[in-house]
């Protein structure tokens, strides 16, 4: 077992370099991975959750970490780890030797290993989501898979495409109980699916910027174009896959209504990151004028 070659670096520059290398190897957007790490741990490679087994830069719980290490450890020079992990008939990932198990779980606190495993996990989710949704997956889509699991993310995104104003707590009651601030406003009002998604997009963008990067890349819908289109009574919104024109237009109008009630500018909401993750695959037509 060659655990010693994975030295733990806690310097922010070392963490960013590790994330950049993981991005280069997997093709997952650097700024998404940077924003996720900022959101999960504040770029603290030794972060530990107080209420679960989550640990490290990307706050992997024990089972999720063992699962991704089993799937991808060997291709990144960690066959000793992946070969030691076995799946039981119930689907649980186990390691027979306690010392080896501790060594594998400790790798969550190594920025290089944590970053490449987070990127591989995101890549797996990206492929699955794009197949299911029939459109490119955004960084926020990937974070939904991290937050709700792949099955939960599929259900969330498909429901949001057809019913953007449904409340998240009604669909994910267990997750809402465990993450009240995500699913409810401070006054106790439940957040809609669109609100939840937009807040995650915003947080990812802010996290990446706070960590020295930029908002994760998404296609940008020019603010003036969207505003002008929605002001026209006969405008047509051409939606993405699995979405009706009515639901796409209703969501876009709702986004502007929320903007008008806050200090957030339209331009900032439509920059890469906030809200544009959902608007990115809309094509707006019939401009007129």
List keywords for this structure.
289 residues, mainly alpha, 4% strand, globular, disordered C terminus
Structure overview:
It contains 15 helices and four strands. It has 289 residues and is mainly alpha-helical. It has two domains: 123 residues, Lysozyme, CATH 1.10.530.10; 148 residues, no CATH class. The protein has a two-stranded antiparallel sheet. Strands 3-4 form a two-stranded antiparallel ribbon. Strand 1 and strand 2 form a beta hairpin. The radius of gyration is 20 Å and the shape is globular. 41% of the residues are buried. The N terminus and C terminus are likely disordered.
Compact summary:
The chain is mainly α and 289 residues long. The protein has helices at residues 12-26, 30-41, 62-72, 79-82, 98-106, 111-133, 139-162, 168-171, 173-178, 180-183, 193-210, 223-230, 245-260, 266-269, 276-279; strands at residues 85-87, 93-95, 236-238, 283-285. It has 2 domains: 3-125, Lysozyme; 138-285, no CATH class.
Strand and helix layout:
Layout: H1 12-26, H2 30-41, H3 62-72, H4 79-82, E1 85-87, E2 93-95, H5 98-106, H6 111-133, H7 139-162, H8 168-171, H9 173-178, H10 180-183, H11 193-210, H12 223-230, E3 236-238, H13 245-260, H14 266-269, H15 276-279, E4 283-285
Antiparallel strand pairs: 1-2, 3-4
Helix pairs in contact: 1-6, 2-11, 3-6, 6-7, 7-11
**Mind summarizing the main beta sheet?**
2 strands, antiparallel
Counting H and I runs of at least 4 residues, what is the number of helices?
Answer: 15
If you average the pLDDT, what whole number results? 79
- Bin the strand percentage: under 5%
Distance between the termini: 69 Å
Number of domains: 2
Sequence of secondary-structure elements: HHHHEEHHHHHHHHEHHHE
């Amino acid at each position: 077992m060659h655990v010693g070659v994975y030295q733990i670096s806690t310097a922010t520059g070392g963490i960013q370099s590790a994330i950049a290398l993981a991005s280069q190897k997997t093709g997952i957007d650097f700024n998404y991975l940077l924003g996720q790490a900022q959101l999960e741990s504040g770029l603290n490679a030794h972060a530990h959750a107080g209420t679960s087994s989550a640990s490290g830069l990307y706050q992997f719980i024990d089972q999720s970490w063992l699962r991704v290490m089993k799937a991808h450890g060997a291709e990144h020079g960690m066959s000793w780890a992946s070969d030691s992990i076995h799946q039981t008939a119930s689907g649980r990932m186990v390691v027979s030797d306690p010392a080896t198990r501790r060594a594998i779980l400790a790798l969550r606190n190594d920025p290089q290993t944590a970053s490449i495993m987070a990127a591989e996990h995101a890549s797996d989710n990206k492929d699955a989501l794009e197949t299911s949704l029939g459109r490119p997956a955004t960084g926020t889509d990937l974070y939904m898979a991290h937050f709700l699991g792949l099955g939960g993310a599929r259900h969330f995104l498909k429901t949001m495409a057809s019913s953007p104003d449904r409340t998240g707590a009604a669909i994910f009651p267990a997750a809402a109980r465990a993450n009240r601030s995500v699913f409810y406003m401070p006054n106790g009002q439940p957040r809609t699916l669109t609100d939840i998604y937009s807040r995650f997009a915003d947080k990812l963008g802010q996290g990446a910027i706070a960590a020295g990067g930029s908002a994760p890349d998404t296609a940008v819908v020019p603010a003036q174009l969207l505003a002008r289109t929605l002001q026209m009574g006969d405008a047509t919104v051409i939606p993405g896959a699995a979405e009706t024109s009515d639901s796409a237009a209703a969501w876009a109008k709702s986004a502007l209504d929320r903007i008008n009630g806050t200090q957030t500018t339209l331009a900032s909401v439509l920059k890469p990151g906030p809200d544009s993750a959902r608007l990115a695959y809309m094509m707006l037509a019939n401009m007129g004028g």
